[in-house]
Every structure is written in C-alpha cells, then in structure tokens.
Amino acid sequence: MLFHSTRGKDTDKTFEEVLMQGLASDGGLFMPDSWPQVDMDHLKNLSSFLDVAKYIVPMYTGSSFDNKDVEKVLEKTWHDFEKKELIETFDIDKNLTVLELFHGPTAAFKDFGLQLAAAFFNKTLQVQNKTAIVFGATSGDTGSAAIDACKDFDLIKSFILIPDGNMSEIQRKQMTTVNRANVFPISVNGTFDDCQDIVKKGFKERSFLREDQYLLAVNSINWVRIIGQICYYFFASLKVNKFSEPLNFSVPTGNFGNVFACYAASKMGMPLSKIIVAVNSNDILDRFFKNNDYSKMDVTETISPSMDISVASNFERLLYDFYLNRDSKKCSDHYTHFLNNGIKIDEKVWKKSSELFLSYCINDDSTYECMQHFSENFNYIMDPHTAVAAKAAIKLNKTLSNKTVILSTAHPAKFPTALENAGINLDNIPKNLEKVLSMTEEDYKLSVSEDSIFNFIKEKNK
Fold this sequence. Notes:
Strand content: 5-15%
Strand order of the largest sheet: 3-4-12-9-10-11
Helix content: 40-55%
Structural class: alpha/beta
Radius of gyration: 21 Å
Number of strands: 13
Oligomer: single chain
C-alpha cells in the first residue's frame, strides 16, 4: 500500500514516509492509493480490540514493515487504559448505545490514534538512529494525548501550542504538569486557528530543525491517527451487533478526523447506515451538509471547546474521495481559493451527501439540556462534546433506521464547570485526572508570533 496527496503533487509515498511527514509537501493530506477490503467472516471471529488492530493496521503498513514487526509494535501500543477492552458501551435503549472512548490515560478518544502514531514514530527513529520534534496545536485533548503518548520516548521532544480560550483547567493541566525534559507546553495569547496557522508554517519552513531530524505531525492530518480510529469503529461494530446490520454513528466533531475514520471504515467494508456529523455553534460542517456552504467564519467559544474550530482539516479527505471521485486537480483548485471564496461544489455532486451523511448543529443551551436529560432519565453522565452527538441523534431519530451509536469522546470529569452549570454531580473521577488538579503547572508563555515560537523551539532543540 502506497499513499498520495489529495492535491496531486506528492505521490508514491510509503507508510513510513507518510507517518514521518504528516502533511503533504503540496499542502494536501495523504490518502491510501486504494481502500483495502476486510474479510467480514474473519472479523466476526475476533474477540478484542488488539485482535482487530492486528488485522486492520497491517493493511496500511506493508510498504515499510513486515506483519510480524507490526504485531510486535501493536502488542505494546495501547497502554494505561482503565478498561480491559479499552472501550465500553452503555445501552440507553434498544435503539441507542453510547460508545465510551475515554478510558485511556488522558481520558479522551485521541489516546487511540496518538498512541499508535507514537509507537511507530519511536520504531522508525530507533531503526534510523534519528531524533524528532512533535509540533502541534490543541483545542482541548490533542495536546495532552500527544504529550502522554510521546513522553516516554527520549528520541522525541514535544512542543504543543495551547491557545487562549475555554478549555477546562483539567485539560490544560494535563499538558502543563507533565514535567518531563522532553515536553514543552507553550501557552500563547491567540486562538486555536492562530496556533494551527503557525504549526502549518512551521511544517513548511522547518527553520528550527537540526540536520537529519524529523518534524512530526500529531494533529489528525497524520494518516496514522486515522488508522487507530478506524480500528475502534470496527471493534465497536463487532461489540454492538457483530456486524449483523449497518449501524448509525453520531460523531461530535471539529476537525473531522473522527468522522472521516468512520467513513474510511465503511470504505473498507464495515456495514454503515448513516454518519451523523454533530457540531456546536462552529457550524462550517453543518452549513456544508445542509446548504453546500463550506466557508470560514470566526470561532465562537462554547462549552464543547475541542470542537471550537472554524476549518475542519480532514474535510479535504472527504471532499477528495467522496465528492470529487479522487480528482486531485479539482481538490487543489478548491483549496487554492478557499479562504477568499469558500467551497461550493456542483449541486448534483453535493446531493450525494444524503446517501451517507446527516448533520446537526447544537448550541450551548441545548447541550446543557441534553446533559440534564440523560442524567435525570438514564442516570448517565456525559461530557458536553458527547451531549452534542447525543442531541443530534435524538433530533434525527425519526429519519434513521437501525441502532445508533453515540460516540463519547471525553470523560465528563474533564469539564467540571459544564457539569456544575448543568446541575450535575459527578462522584467518580478517574485517578489520573484527579491527580493533575493538585500539581503545579510548568508551561512557557509566548506571544502568538511565529518568530517567538520558532526561536523558542530552536533554543530548546540544542
């Protein structure tokens, strides 16, 4: 399996090259040359997440690693999860199930993709006798998951930009209390989009790198993160109904990586009815799926901060594969003019959306209402991101067939203010979250300027 860019100028890349490069040199995102197809009869006989991963991951890694080496890596990849199966399910009723993806060390779904990426980062660096810098921006959970996944690998230094905004104290402290020599949490006076722009420029210029050193992408532009998420869609389907009928998945999303992983799983053969794209007041995705309007607007702060994003990076992958039939020239043209004109595709092509996608936009008041509804009626406490997906599933229920799985992407304890404002008491807080609240923060405060940030990285990268 080789990979290529959505914009057409970066092709014939191996798994290892895609892993270590992250963003394509032409500004596009990497995609597999074709979608590998699963053997459903084989999958039905598997029993654990690791078994599923050992089947799925090698479908993408063969250009760089033999299967035995991959299996050895996977044996040690997912660690410090509180649940033996890594995920849990909670049945609300016969048609609605919550899929809990927050039982990893940082209590968020991003542990799945980032632990996989980090394991392969380290494997490659050891083989090549090189070092690397992780450089990323976070709107909530990516930074803590990236830091935790990489902190034990001495060959990797992590520089994570933490923007001003309303991420919770626990989310921030998960990054600023690690206190490792290879971890550098950087607090900046800007938005997530400001930070993301600096990260993208850093990947383009690479001025702070030493010779023969890698710069690693941990945001969901990195294809390997998507692979990790594909695995839990297959395992969830196995766990919920053993693939006996297609499921609906209601996915709270900002950067679209989790939605695209679901789409990718379906392209590989996973039975799928509909994907519900659930967003908060930052509604670029809802505007596209409802009105064919993908245009950037200012970010609005909400109680679901991990979704406070004005541009969904992974949407480019869907546009390229689903709507444009892998026409890289059309994809490149759309993104060349995106900031000024937005993206509006041919109306007949856009109408394909209804084959697979539904979308719903939820404001903060409705999010609180949903949290209260599930707490009072089902004794189930959910975080605000999960509530966005749950509300969307309820609102769209009459248009759906088959069971709907709501993705629960973060532990509710990460959002104590939201719980308090909703009048919800949470008795059980994971020990790893409770611990960080009493720890002293150690971060680096810099202006939202590429010069100050790039110079800082250069200084710490000696």
